[in-house]
Amino acid sequence: MKKTPIHFASTAVIRTRAEMEVLAGEIADLKNRQRMCSAEMDAGLNEIRRHYAEILGGMEEQIAARMEMARGWAESHLAEFGGVKSLELTHAMIGFRTGRPHLKPANGWTWNRVLEKAKSLRWAGAFVRTKAEVNKQQILLQRDQIGVEKLRELGVRVAREESFFVEPKLTEVERRERLAA
Length: 181
Fold this sequence. Notes:
- The structure is a single chain.
- By secondary structure, the chain is mainly alpha-helical.
- It has helices at about 15-75, 110-120, 135-140, 145, 150-155, 170-180, and strands at about 85-90, 95.
- The chain has a domain at about 15-85.
- The protein has six helices and two strands.
- Strands 1-2 form a two-stranded antiparallel ribbon.
- The protein is flat.
- It starts with 16 loop residues before the first helix and ends with a helix.
- The relative contact order is 0.07.
């Protein structure tokens, strides 16, 4: 049975439980409609993404194949570049870009092996990073054993924030969908 909505002023005060029941029903109804609208939108967006993913994927493959051909031509015709890294053509500028310097482990090395080696070399110690930080998860796990006084001495307190909520009940369609899943 559809409830007739009571339109409250934004500053209205709810005085009775019956008014609260109506208000909670309106909130639940709006939230359920909002969820359904959002699900419908997501389904539509997913359909659009699937449609264009196929098209874009095909284009990406075509671009990659043509880029390999263009790179092959450019590498075998460096004289066309006249000693510079780019060449202007009718439809595009082509060229080679030098990326930013970055480190890679030498052949046969891993980053863990590099770390161990840096620790063992006096001159390389400055390249080993140590990050000290408060282990908040561990403090929370042991808060009862630590106690309030020691936590205060450490300069922390355990906080819990309370928030008000109105959680709508599932619609019949959502109940059936959850049971089916």
